[in-house]
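hey m, so remember when u said the tokens were messed up on ur end? i reran from scratch. heres the input so u can diff it against urs
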Amino acid sequence: MSWFQGPFRCAPRARSSVNRFLASVELLGGLLIFVSATITLAATGESNSRRSEARLLFEQKKWAEAVVILRPVFKAQPTARDVGMDLSRALLFSGRREEALSVLQEMAAGASGTRREHILRRAQVASRQFLTAETQKLYQEGLNFMWARKFKQAREQLELALSAESDNVEILTRQGQCLAMEGEADSAAEVFRRARRLAPAEPAIRMWLGRMLHLRGELAEAVTEIQAGRAGLPLSEAAPVWLADAMVSTGKREQAIALLEADVQKNPMHVQSLLALARLYLFSPALPLVSDGAALGDEVQPAVKDAPGGGLWQARKKLQLATSRLGEYRLIQHGRNEGELGLVLRTDTETQASITELSSKVESQIQQARSRRE
């Protein structure tokens, strides 16, 4: 027998050992799968049992006891949507809204697509839900004062509502708006910061916070907040105006003009953007009486280059457009757009007064320029 016949002669025995080993591995794998499935079924059964127990407590409005039952289940199964929803509900009605929102935000962070959108919608509802009819009544009374633009009286009612539900985002937002409309930017900013912590995905809150930070001089953070809010408020008339204001304060006047020009191209009925443009063209040191628009962005260069008198003529043109559109602007209920920020910021009378005042300044400066030339 040659030396290489040995291994082949042993092959059947070796194959038998390998087969027995593979069979053992397969059996062990099957046992592991069985044990895993058993544990999963047991955990699911325990989870369902605890949820059923919690639901009984819900019917009895024993929210704190339900939290005790559900919290360990959620800790063991943080991706289980129904468990998280039940826990957030129990936390909310036991007076622990911030914890409830934290649970929902944790769930949203681990979700995607429509599931994430559903969780975020639930978080939005939970952040604004009134826990008692009395609190809702106080809030509604405050809101009525706001619509009448009686902000001091509105604040008094909202403070009473906040004393009962200090973490209600709806009340906090309205309170911040009242402070803002009364010119108290510092206090308003702190209220909006609290509201943002509770509801970080709310674009209107971020817009208002950004505006208050701008008025406080915190410009970099203001631009960041307004940009984040504007992304979620595509129809808002105030959003591009507030962002342009913040950009001008950071020395980006030309970019602000380009932003507003793009907005009125996309939204011709944004009269407030036309007014903001008129102010920038009228008072901009970068836009002399005669300008070729070289300092501006590509979006606004053609309009300025064609203007016979540069900045002043552009200001006049924007005001003429604003005047011609004011009637339709009223008819389409322009408050609908600003209402995305939760409040109509300017009345029709105030808008008309701004147009008249700016037009008077523009015409006066045009006459002065003509006199100098003569």
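this time it looks ok to me. The chain has a mean pLDDT of 82. if urs says something different then somethings off w ur setup not the seq
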